[in-house]
Amino acid sequence: MPNPEITASLIAICVNTEYVAYMIIYGLSAAASTRVSNELGAGNPNKAKHAMAVALKLSILLVLAVVLSLALGHDIWYGFFSNSKSITD
Question: Coiled-coil segments, which residues (predicted)?
Fold first, then answer.
């Protein structure tokens, strides 16, 4: 490694980015699981299927939003973690 400080900083940015993206999808997953369980417990399998379909579509939209925001705004995202020019280059 030519510069271990920069390498460690980049790894920290990647880990934090992964954590933020994972928490968004994890929250949706927990909510969908609760909704489907409630519908199945109430004896409404069709509503449970509909809730899962909505959760799947919403999770795909969220993933696309995260990917697009990171692809188009990566300079802004890195700026949240460091103002060093060597990190953003």
Answer: none
